[in-house]
Specification:
With 224 residues, this protein is of the alpha+beta class. It is built from six helices and eleven strands. It has helices at residues 3-8, 50-56, 62-68, 123-128, 134-151, 197-223; strands at residues 22-25, 30-33, 38-41, 44-46, 72-82, 92-94, 100-105, 116-121, 159-172, 179-181, 186-188. Helix 2 packs antiparallel against helix 3. The structure holds flavin-adenine dinucleotide.
């Protein structure tokens, strides 16, 4: 999933696996701390889920409350691999009730092999089972998927592999693509600001870049 971004960032100085622990407003912009390393920046983009942004932004800053007031919902995601093909007449389905809200035949995507299925649990189910172990969640969602497959006339598959991901901040409720405070050089971005999923992250990132470029252009025209 992140291969296109890795290619786009190949020529940039990117530091990975460095958790930022604090950000502070300074006269020149922002100071970013990650333990020992400290960076100075005129402008700052926080492209992380709203609750994590709220924990970093200083309480006195107006965007702290904005980030804190955006609720986000969780989603348990389970990937299953079966030994044999499951012949459903669709590659993906939204479910309107029950534990599973979305299921997809991942191997139907271009250049994929094998028999891999992705299940997303509904918000209500994910909230109710948020602190369950991955093994408990896998067992329950396999039970539910097997029940659906039986309803669609499929024999119970032999599941060879299963993995679960507790996606704690999966969906946000904001419809703005970016939240910014141009005068303090701080911009929030992320999929949660534009409907979730990778398209939302992309659109929000474009808006964040445009917001920063507009501030820079304004500063340059004030100087000339
Ligand atoms: C299991 C799973 C399956 C998915 N499947 C699909 C799919 O099939 N199709 C689709 O469109 N979308 C899918 N998504 C959603 C997609 O991955 C997201 O929409 C997208 O990654 C959001 O991008 P983002 O830049 O907003 O945030 P993220 O990709 O979440 O990036 C935020 C980054 O910030 C880091 N971070 C957080 N706090 C700090 C800190 N204090 N310091 C430093 N770094 C920090 C995080 O570790 C993370 O790497 C899936 C997500 C999951 C979890």
């Amino acid at each position: 999933m992140n291969a296109p971004l890795a290619a786009m960032a190949a020529a940039l100085d990117v530091q990975l696996s460095v958790p930022v622990t604090a950000i502070e407003a300074t006269a020149q912009g922002w100071q970013v701390r990650a333990g020992e390393p400290i960076w100075q920046a005129r402008q700052l983009v926080l492209a992380i889920p709203a609750p994590q942004a709220a924990a970093l932004i200083p309480v006195a800053h107006p965007m702290q409350a904005a980030a804190e007031n955006i609720p986000m919902s969780p989603c348990w995601a389970v990937m299953l691999s079966s030994e044999h093909a499951i012949n459903l007449p669709f590659a993906g389905a939204f479910m309107n009730d029950g534990a599973i809200s979305w299921l997809a035949h991942n191997s139907s995507k271009p250049d994929r092999t094998g028999q891999h299925w992705l299940l997303h649990a509904s918000v209500a189910w994910s909230q109710a089972h948020l602190e369950d172990s991955a093994d408990e969640v896998i067992a329950l969602l396999i039970q539910e998927f097997n029940r659906l497959l039986a309803r669609w006339g499929q024999a119970e598959p032999h599941w060879q592999h299963a993995g679960a991901h507790r996606w704690r901040f999966a969906q946000g409720s904001s419809t703005q693509a970016v939240v910014q405070s141009a005068e303090t050089g701080l911009v929030l971005a992320g999929d949660w600001l534009a409907g979730g999923r990778i398209e939302g992250a992309y659109l929000s990132g474009i808006d964040a870049a445009n917001a920063l470029l507009a501030v820079t252009a304004g500063q340059q025209s004030n100087q000339s």
